Structure formats: C-alpha cells, structure tokens
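dumping these here so i dont lose them again. two proteins, back to back, each one seq then structure tokens. dont judge the mess
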Amino acid sequence: MAIDQETEMTDAEIDDFLSRHETGVLSLARTNKPYAIPISYGYGDDERAFYMRLVSTPDSEKRQFLESTPQARLVVYDETGSSYRSIIATGDLESIEPADLTPDEIAQYGAAKRPLFEIWAEGKDSLNIELYRLVPETLNGRRTEVDRET
C-alpha cells in the first residue's frame, strides 16, 4: 500500500469532519506517565471546542489523571475507501460545573454519543460523572489518499 498523496486539512474541512464524528481517543499525560481512553464528544465549530462527559469511579486511574490537571491530546480518525483522515487536538481539559452551562453548551454535551452499554464493577451510585471542555491550543488535520493496488 503506497501513500499517493498526503494533505493538510483546512479549518473548514476539520470542522466538518469533527462535526460528523462522535468518538475519538483521549490521551492524558502527567509526570511521564500516559493514559488513553476511547471517548465520545460533542463539537462546537463556532468556538472549535470539544465537550465530553467522563465517567469514573472514585479510586480509578482515570479519576487520578483527571484530578491532576493533565495535558490532553484528542485523536479522531476515519478510514473510508482509499482515504484516511485524522485530527489531533492538544490542550488542557477544563472541568465544567453543570450550573455554569450555557444553552449552546448543553446542546453540545447532548450531542456526545452515549455508549450502547455500560459495565461497571461498582454500582452506579458510586460513579463520578463530570463534564469537561477542551478548547485546543493546537488543532491539526491530515488527509491521506492511499493507492491500495501497490
């Protein structure tokens, strides 16, 4: 498989792609230790921000990372036919209090896809459900066309 052409995506292409997708991989880092999880998100192209509803248990590794104000990287990607696209957003996660939400932000959290099923070792009453926003410091996209016959 040979790469025929790789191109930077425009801001409009990035916004369109992110608005049509709902899932990605969120990576968090602190003191040289990484943590990555699949997530769903809502995306507001006006402010170019991601909205996430993150669920964890009080003693989970996810909770420990979220409480440490880690650096964040969100990767959203797709492969369709001979085209591969990926977007990488970097920045800080911001915890949002539900009482502080605007109507537009509520709509973005509502756009975040919920898992089709949930499996938790502990009861639902012990889960922490928190809202986060990622306004990227960097937001870059690439599109690659692949020649599959080579």
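---- next one ----
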Amino acid sequence: MTHADGTAPELPHDQGADPRPPAQRRRDTEHRLTHDIDVWVASASADGPPYLVPLSFHWDGETLLMATAADCPTGRNLAATRAARLALGHTRDVSMIEGDVEVLEIDTLPQERGDRFTAHTGFDPRTMTAPYRWFRVSPRRIQAWREVNEMPGRELMRHGRWLV
C-alpha cells in the first residue's frame, strides 16, 4: 500500500521484529516507569461510568505516586475502590499495570517524597487551592507487549512479584 504521492507509509519501529525476551520487556517497562511523566489511569465506581484520565506520576522503584483532586471522579473512584489499572506507552508498545491504591492526605506524605514527585513531573499538588490527595499505587500485575507476537509471555509481574 502506498500514499497518494507514491511513498510508502511509515511502519511502527517494531513491526515484524522478533519478540523481546521477558527480561528485555521488564527493562523497557522499568525504563518507562523511571522516565515517563504521565500515565493513563482507569478507575470506576459501582454507581457511575468508568473514567480514563492521564495523571502525572513518579516511580520510586516500588510504587507509583500520583495526585488528583479529592472530589473529582478519579479521586473519588480511587479512594472508594482502592484499585486502579494504569497504561504506559502507546497501543503498539504498552505496559499495563494493575495495582492496589493507598490514599494519603496531601500533608501526610514526607516532604522529600513530595519534592521528588514535583521535580519529576513539574507539578506540585501541595500548592493547589482545591483539596488534592496523593494516590500511591503498588503494582500487583504488570504486562508488556508490542505486537501480537509478544502476547505470549506478556505477564512480567504477578501478585506483586516480578516473574523475570
């Protein structure tokens, strides 16, 4: 297939590539966790629609720290269910994270942890006029894949423990 001008469409960089071994997928996922600034956050409540929003985050090597307004749908959902599903990357190179959510009032997080979040994201929820909360997500399950050939072996973490 070609464009109207006769040029070939650009293909994703990994299309047709051999599947990455699980150890490489873990390294790639940990790189995203360390260097990405935003993550898609899916949350739901029993009595309302599910929500999908991007939130800034900071990874400390074990947990993702996020913040949002306490009274927004995502903040209410995370506080009520204490569960979230997160997505890093794009559809052709995604890391999916299911985790348990700990809710922290904005003034209960140690100052240095909040400072690391702010330095990484460029956003300081402690200065917002609307009440914000911290949401700390402990991953229970992590999956990573690019193309269909990486679907087998996509699970990198189960029950909070790395498999590779």
